[in-house]
Every structure is written in C-alpha cells, then in structure tokens.
Amino acid sequence: MGFGTSDILSVLGDEVVLVHGEPIASVAGGVSLDSEAAEGGLAFCSDRSKEAPGRIARSGATVIICHARAVECLADKGLQKTLIAVANPRLAYIRVMNKLYPPDSEVGVDVTAKIHSTADIGAGVYVGPQSVIDADCRIGEATVIESHVRLHRGTCIGKRVRICAGAVIGAAGFGFERAPDGKLHRFPQRGHVEIGDDVEIGANVCIDRAAQDVTRIGAGTKIDDLAYIAHNVRIGEDCLIMASSIVAGSCVIGDRVEISPGAIVRDKTVIGEDARIGLGAVVVSDLVAGITVAGVPAKPMTDRDGTSGKGR
C-alpha cells in the first residue's frame, strides 16, 4: 500500500511548521536518508549541523522530514523533492510509519507452546513456539510473546506488551542468608511480577519475582536485550532500560528514567524521575530527579557552562 504527501501531512497535523515542494501522489515507503536504495521513499533527517542540507540534497528520498533550518537553506536550490519541517523529525517519522505502515498483527498460540489450564489469556494474544506460561498467569489483550519465553507462576502481563525471544519473567529472585556454620539458606521467593500496558521486553531479559510482594514494570517502559531486573524492583512508567544493564534488588526507579547500556544500579537504590545514567556507570547511592550521572562510581556530569547536572 502506497501513500502520498497528503497522507503524511494528515498524520502530522499541527506538528508541521513548513512544507516546501510539490505534492507527491505516491511515496514508495520508509527508507534511510543515506541509503543507496532510498529512491522514491520517505526519509527523515534529525541532523542540525551544517552538513544536514547537503545530506538532504544528495538523498534519493522523494519526501524528507527535517528541521525548518534545513528547509530554509534548500528552498532556492531547485530540489525535486518535498521537504516537511517539524520540531522532532525522528518522532514524526515514527508516527507516520506506524500509522501508514502498521506492523503485521500476530494472533494465536503456536502448537509447541505450553499454557497452563489456569492461565488467563486475553483476546488477540500471540504465543510463539516453545514458550511456556505457568499457572495463574494473566496476559492482557493484543500482547505478543515470541518464541522460548518463560512466564513463571502468577506473572501478570498488561495489554499490548511485546516480549521478545528467550525472556524469563517471574523466576525466583537471588536471596540467601548464611548460617553460623557457613551454609547458605534460600529466602522463600513467594511474590510475583506485574508488567504494565505497552511495555516492551527485549530478547533474553530476566525479571525476577519479588520475595513476598511484587516486582513491577510501569506502563510504557522499554527494556532492551539482555537486561536483568532483580527481585522487588519497582520501575516507573516510560523508562528506557538499555542493553545489558542490571537493576539490583529492591531498587525504586522513577518515571522516564534512562539507564544506558551496561550500567549497574546497586540494590535498594532510589532513582528520581527523569534521571539519566550513562554508559557503563555504577550507581551506588540514590539519585535526585532530573540528574545525569556517569562513571564508576557514578557522579554528576558537568555541562558545557561548567555547572553540574545535579537535577531539580
């Protein structure tokens, strides 16, 4: 199915601040700005540098979503393409592609999946090959569970969640007490995991169930491949937990927090909303809202004006 500039402008609405070029009836689809295969497609350019106009001019894309400054620089160059200026080109591109080219819906249960008779599966759910859903699990409507996923007893999944291949949710947390004779005794892990609506969980992610209460992932949060979320953790809404990061037991993560790849958050740490944790950082103490930290141990980053990013 093709679409034209009128369809793109209809999706973006008031986001559009400037349009340059003639209407195009049919656009081939989404392409990369610098790709050799970009001919006739829709691309975006988030680049604000002086190189941006040149990249746009050289692109084979027919329609390009970009910043207004780039459009102004190219307005008198006679380009045979349509430029659409918005405040956030990447976000606008995402909205257009998701609206005009929605992903194929997957529905049903693969014959090799194993679902316990007491599990509650919502409408429009997909369960992939070799996945296992234990007793008393609840899965909200339109959720996609890819292959080889394991949901342990009592796991609650919201609506429109995507869980990628190999994820394990609700396994027993890592909790032990050492006796006087040196022997280790496992603390009983009797809780469960709750996943909010519109969460995405990457491949081979592990999220442990709480010891006695709940491990919770807030609505809209996205967790990248190979991340580990320990028992009793509470993660807020719309967070980004990136690849290979570790959130240790009983941490509380506020809304919209971003944890970069390979970062580690020490157990029982509280992270304020909108905080950002840099690549490979090790957080060993609480962070206030809005702060940006990096390093081992993690410390506030210094802005270009010499001030420290100490949050609100």
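(the above was protein one; protein two follows)
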Amino acid sequence: MTMSSGASHGHDPGGDEPGQPIAGEERDLEEERGEFGFRQLLTLRPSWVQIAFLVLLTVLAIGPFVALVVVLHTPQSSTSDLVEGPSPPADGLELEATANGVNAVGGELSVLLVLEPQPGLLSKNGLTRGLELRVNDVRGETTYTFAEGEPVSGVQVSLLLADGAVTQYPFDSYHSTLIYNVVYTDADDGGERPQVSLSVRSSVTDFKVRASVASGDVGPFNVVDFEIERNTSTTVYSIGIMALMWGLAITGVLISWAIVIWRVEPPIWVYAYFVGVLFALPPLRNSLPGSPPPGAVVDFVSFYWSIAIVGAAMLLVVGVWIRNARAHRRRRQA
C-alpha cells in the first residue's frame, strides 16, 4: 500500500511542516519578541528582592508625614549657641561672635563680632573710654577703633578655612581660628584691658559648626577654634544623588546586556531612556546643596562615570539597531 509523498514526509493536509508555527502563530511570536517579552514577564512571581524593595518604597512614602511632625515639634531658632560665657562685670564687655557664613570655595569663614559694653563703660553719648579691637581678619583690616563718646558697631571679619578642601564634597571638613584682643586706646601696650566675656553662636544652616575656647598660655590674645563640616542632611542627600546616578547608569548597562547578549528586540522607549538620562544627569548634579565646583568627589565617584556609561550604552544600542536593520534589509533584498 503506497502513501502519498506529502504524508510520507510528515506533511499535514495544509502542506505545513509539523512543529513549525503557522503564519498567524509566527506573527504572534514576533509581536511578543517586539514587546520585550512583557507577556511572559508579567506572569512571573515577584522575587524576594522585589518584595523587599516594594516594602521599602511603601515606608518611604510615609516619610514626608513623619518629617513634617518632627519639624513642627522641633524648636526653631535662627542661631545656635556654641559657647556661653559668664556674665561680664559692670565695667566690662560682652563679645558676641556669630559665625554667619561659610565660603568653602573661597576658603573663608565669616564671623560677626559685636561688642556690648556694660553700664560702667557707657555714658549718655557712648563709651567712657576708647576701645580697640584687634582680630586676625584675612581681608587685611585687623584693627578696629571705637573712640570715646561714640557708640559701638558690629564688625564683620573673614577667617581662613584650613585643613580641608571643597573637592572632598560632601565629606569635606574645615578648621578655622579666631584670634582677638580688646584693649583701651589710652592704655600702653600690655597695660590695662577690659574684662571681656565671650559668647559664640552660629547662624550657618548648610554647615555644622562647633566652637571651643583655647586654654593655656596664649599671651594677651584670646583664641577660639571652629570645627566645620557638612550637615548630616546634606551628606545623606548627596550620597543618595550619587547612588541614584549609579542606579541609572547600571540600568543602562543591564538594558544593553539584554539587547546584545540575550538578543532581545530593543523597545522604542529604550532610546528615550538613554537620551532622558543624559539630559537629566547634569541638572541632578547641579541640585546638590552648596553647588560644589567641578572636580569634587561626587564627580569622580558617580557623575563622570554615569555620563560615560549611559552615553556608551546608548551608542551600543543604536549600533545594534543599525546592524539589525542592515541585516533585515539584506534578507528582504535576497
């Protein structure tokens, strides 16, 4: 008994090879590949990493309400007391030194000095005796004179920041020293000096400032040491921005890996992702508190690398698309 040629070779009545998708099925498979396999991916159960990340996102969503409650119940003040001196005598002075600005780029600490004479040094017109304030102002004006009979005004001085560099942002810290002395203008050098009670405050918001009065033999001068570092909130935010930059760059690497190695069809949103990230990274970097100059730690650790990685990944994906387009064109012409 003879069999037909089509049956002997396993052909079905429609003439298609067994195990081969028909035209409609093949079209469906191509559509699924073109959709990056989302139909299959959506059926996968979430991993424990995804669940943990989802829980973290849920907790973070409650964060603004917690922060609002904490801020509303925290005492607010424009200045913080760093050193509180004793009450001056009736014929003495109180010197208030308020750190009111840190210029990390310029390497200067701004301090406002205010002399407050007590009733024993005041008359109806002003001072009963002239005073001279000597201070280590890096701007060059180191002596301020207040004549007898005149009121006393505040003095803004600039101190040198040492032992730090803004290129270490956001981990930079600094040290500064205030050296001052108050004498009577009518007294000889080394003669009579008024008793001065020192109080140190800070109105700086973007840095954490600590102060201590130097003890020991410092001669006729008084010394105040300032320790300055970034606020914890600034450091945490900057580290978060660095991690975000790295996350965006690593995402680009994973996308490139899937397209080149796993040979997944590049979805249309990939190109928008790469271009959007490239344009978003510079504003993201410029949003850092304190506007650190180029060349800081944040640049060499995350920003420069992220720009290079995302840019190279975009060029790689575009190159794969061009190569596939040329191959498809050749198949159509064959």
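Reviewer note on protein two: The beta strands are 80-83, 93-103, 108-117, 131-135, 143-146, 155-160, 173-184, 196-202, 207-213, 222-230.
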